[in-house]
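Q: How would the structure tokens look for this protein?
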Amino acid sequence: MSGLVLLYQGQQFTIYAYGEDDAHCEVTDFLEDRQVLAAADEKKFQDLFIRHGDHGPIRDETKCRHLDDGIWEYKARHGGRIAWFYVPGALVICACGVVKKSDKADPEFIRRAKAIRERYRQEQSHE
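A: Here is the predicted structure in token form.
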């Protein structure tokens, strides 16, 4: 799959990060950037990918919640957030990451995730 980076192949879901091309992936860049994301949050995201991939949807809203219009977020303890969406075929596509600075969901974060989802859908319709 072009523009997708495999994050975890689970028993129930396969989790990918979306990238604009094979060389740039915002989610993997976010996960690797120690100036932005705490190492503990990277580990937490890996645990969430495994849990979701192997056991299905995460029902605990302290770890995962619906934001808006089919956009969900994985939540890590130190403020790290990764927006994602479902795709038919038991796929989860991680769109973008941010370190949350307030109690409310950042509207720009949600808008960016929706734009990435639309770009992904357009690419898939042309294949």
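Residues 4-125 form a domain with the YaeB-like fold fold (CATH 3.30.2310.20).

The longest helix spans residues 107-125.

Upvote if useful.
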